[in-house]
């Protein structure tokens, strides 16, 4: 049943992507999904009025840059500054983002900077924008994905197999204005980081590449794993595959659903 729900989630996400308005903004940086969720949840649960007056800007900016200000208070200030349609607020967030060495605040201020930028662009264009954020970020109108393919016989890739897989994936991705950022081979796994335009059919792109590899004699599994939440370690990948096998065995009604339908849920935040 979980596989069926995952397939439903994928279809819902795909429908959303295909109906995106022209004006949308993709978070470029890779930010832990838990931090993103905390940021957006904090906006929704903000106890005080999130809006601040222009007259309050100097006080808020000063508080942001004072080392004695608690981290949690700085998070609130960043949220408040991001809600102000003023270039001074934007520059204050931008400067703080450049200077801070605190990992959480770096991520928090990156999200605030994106929100502030969208606030001003929406004001200039007189139309709202959709903000799309994922754990792995993106570039331009492309989302970044982590893709895992693997050999059925669980032996290491040979050099010939590595070259063939790279060639076929590059070709398939290129046909859809997509690109490989990084590829690594570990044991019988091919780990690919790729940028793919948000409206392109990712499953079709990957399936075409895999089918070509198989047609040319490579014992590559027809199944694959793809996520835009984070890059996975080998032990995480292996655990996922083992759990998938157990689910397939325990639920005979869905034996024919391959796990390339199991997209991790993509967190879209379009209410900002």
Mean of all residue-level pLDDT scores: 81
- CATH architecture tag of the largest domain: 2-Layer Sandwich
Tell me the major beta sheet.
5 strands, antiparallel
CATH superfamily of the largest domain: Transposase IS200-like
Strand-helix topology:
Elements: H1 2-18, E1 24-26, H2 33-44, H3 57-65, H4 71-82, H5 87-99, H6 103-125, E2 130-132, E3 138-139, E4 142-150, H7 159-174, E5 179-186, E6 189-197, H8 202-215, E7 225-227, H9 234-250
Parallel strand pairs: 1-2
Antiparallel strand pairs: 3-4, 4-6, 4-7, 5-6
Helix pairs in contact: 3-4, 3-5, 4-6, 5-6, 7-8
Description:
By secondary structure, the chain is an alpha+beta fold. Helix content is 49%, strand content 14%. It contains nine helices and seven strands. Strands 3, 4, 5, 6 and 7 form a five-stranded antiparallel β-sheet that branches. Strands 1-2 form a two-stranded parallel sheet. Mean pLDDT is 81; it is low at 1-9 and 249-272.
């Amino acid at each position: 049943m979980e596989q069926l729900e995952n397939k439903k989630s994928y279809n819902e996400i795909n429908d959303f992507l295909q109906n995106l308005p022209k004006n949308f903004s993709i978070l470029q940086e890779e930010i832990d999904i838990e931090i993103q969720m905390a940021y957006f949840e904090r906006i929704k649960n903000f106890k005080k009025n999130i809006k601040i007056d222009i007259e309050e800007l100097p006080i808020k900016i000063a508080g942001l840059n004072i080392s004695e200000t608690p981290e949690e208070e700085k998070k609130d200030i960043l949220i408040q500054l991001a809600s102000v349609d003023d270039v001074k607020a934007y520059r204050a967030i931008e400067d703080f983002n450049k200077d801070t060495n605190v990992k959480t605040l770096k991520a928090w201020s990156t999200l605030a900077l994106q929100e502030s930028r969208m606030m001003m662009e929406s004001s200039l264009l007189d139309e709202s924008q959709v903000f799309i954020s994922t754990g792995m970020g993106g570039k331009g109108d492309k989302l970044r994905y982590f893709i895992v393919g693997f050999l059925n016989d669980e032996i290491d890739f040979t050099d010939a197999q590595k070259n063939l897989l790279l060639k076929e994936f590059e070709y398939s991705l290129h046909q859809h204005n997509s690109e490989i950022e990084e590829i690594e081979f570990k044991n019988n796994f091919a780990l690919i980081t790729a940028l793919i335009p948000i409206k392109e059919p990712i499953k079709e792109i990957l399936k075409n590449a895999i089918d070509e590899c198989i047609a040319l004699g490579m014992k590559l599994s027809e199944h694959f794993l793809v996520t835009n939440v984070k890059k996975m370690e080998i032990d995480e990948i292996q655990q996922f595959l083992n759990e998938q096998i157990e689910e397939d065995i325990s639920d005979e009604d869905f034996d024919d659903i391959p796990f390339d339908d199991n997209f991790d849920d993509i967190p879209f935040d379009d209410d900002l």
